[in-house]
Amino acid sequence: MLAIVLGLLHLHTALAAGFITPGFFAAGAALVGIPILIHILNRRKFKVVRWAAMEYLLQAMRKNRRRLKFEQWILLATRCAVLMLLGAALARPLACDSNPMTAFAAQRAGLHVFIIDNGYSMSYETPRPNSKNQLDQAKIIVKQYIDRLAAGGESVMIITTARPADYVISKPNYDLQAARAAVDRVEQSYNESDIPRALDLALKAGQDNSKSPNKSLYILSDNTRCSWQGAQGEKIKAIAARLPDVFKTTVHLLGKADQWNQAIVDLQPDTNLVSTKFNLHFIATARRFGGHGGLSNLQWKVDDVTLAGGSDINVDADTPPVISASQKIDVGGPHVLSASLSSDDHLKTDNTRMRVVEVFNELKVLIVEGQRGLGALEGSGAFLSVALAPPRDAMAG
User: Fold this and answer.
1) Which stretches of the chain are assigned E, i.e. beta strand?
2) Residue 38, Cβ neighbours under 10 Å: how many?
3) What is 59-86 written as a DSSP string?
């Protein structure tokens, strides 16, 4: 019997690492010793007292001794198995996807924080099943994690990274169906990603819920250079150094090594004052990120009307600014200028850049004279007034 106990203890040591709460498994293994002890105590030798009336029954028992011993061993094994399995169930095996009994016995046992990158680069189109872009793929992965959690026993918090990074679920939510619905509601943003603030919010959530024995952080991002390197990269390193003290962290990098993108990074007129009186040019700057340079068609528009002068340009990492043909806007007021690249890249969001330009039909000027004269040109501001608004007969001449 001692060998059996030692063997079970050795089995406990080997298997405990496979459970979320190994303490319950240890308790179950210890309780196995109770039926074994009862079995041993029942086998103790007692003083035999002969009783004539019992002799007949003893003879019958001797005939059935082998069967009775077998039944006793089965009963002992059943008792041990029940206690062991109960301890294993309460210990919550990591391989189990659904575990209502565990959830009841180990309520509020886990906190799972998901950081979903929904910056504009996550709209990059990818040929993956059931997802049209990287944000869709991130949502699928998060919902798969949620489906494996124990209802009532594990909670979810969700953070998005698009500037300004913020909570989608700000407090631990034990309603897993509501958490799935919140994931579906995460929208594609057209702002840049603020990874440092998202990590800071996650760290604060973990520290505020310090009583939760198991805290996990999941980061789903495309790992773009502008989000994870440079000035933001230094902030990320400082925060990441503190994460292991709070979370067990898992990172899913959804970007691929061969990704590339073309973008219009700047658009402006060639003059600060745009007037209906003068022609002007527009200047656009195009860049390619990743891969090698390639031809793209550049088109200009004003108020969604295509202008003449579109051309094919070679877009690479240091393409010089492109200047449009001479244009004239005849109507004053605000106008929307746009420059668009037509290419086969998978991130269409930044292929077009727009800018609102205020076009002046006339420029009103207030002239304050320091000295007034009696004649038409005797005042100190007279010549400036004539220069800015010449008489019609003078212009005709």
Assistant:
1) 110-116, 125-128, 131-133, 154-160, 166-173, 214-221, 248-253, 261-269, 274-275, 282-289, 294-302, 305-306, 311-315, 322-323, 333-342, 352-360
2) 12
3) HHHHHTHHHHHHHHHHHHHHHHHHHHHH
Tell me the one-letter amino acid at 50. R
Task: Take residue 351 and report the two structure tokens written for it.
Answer: 């292929």
Confidence class for position 102, pLDDT limits 50, 70, 90: very low
pLDDT at residue number 395: 44
C-beta of residue 289 within 8 angstroms of C-beta of residue 260: yes
List Cα–Cα distances, 81 to 15, 16, 30, 101, in angstroms: 15, 17, 12, 17
Residue written as token pair 């520290």: 207
Q: Kindly tell me if the per-residue pLDDT of 91 is higher than 80.
A: no
pTM of the model: 0.64
CA distances for 20 relative to 54, 95, 115, angstroms? 55, 10, 22
Greater model confidence, 184 or 371: 184
Inter-axis angle of helices 65-90 and 33-42, nearest 10: 160
Q: What is the pLDDT of residue 396?
A: 45
pLDDT single digits (tens) 13-59: 555 555 556 666 677 777 767 777 776 766 655 566 666 666 667 77
Q: Is residue 144 over pLDDT 70?
A: yes
| Helical packing angle, 195-208 and 230-240, nearest 10° | 10
Q: What's the rounded Cα separation, in Å, for the pair 61 and 346? A: 84
- Tokens 């996550």: give the residue: 122
Question: Residue type at 112?
Answer: H
Higher-confidence residue: 376 or 230?
230
Rounded CA-CA distance 195/223 in Å is 10
- The whole-angstrom distance between residue 292's C-alpha and the CA centroid of its chain comes to 29
Give the residue carrying structure tokens 């295509």: 306
Distance between CA atoms of residues 158 and 114, nearest Å: 5
Instruction: Please determine, for residue 99, whether its predicted confidence score (pLDDT) is greater than 80.
Output: no
Evaluate the omega torsion of the peptide bond into residue 164 and state whether it is cis, within 30 degrees of 0: yes
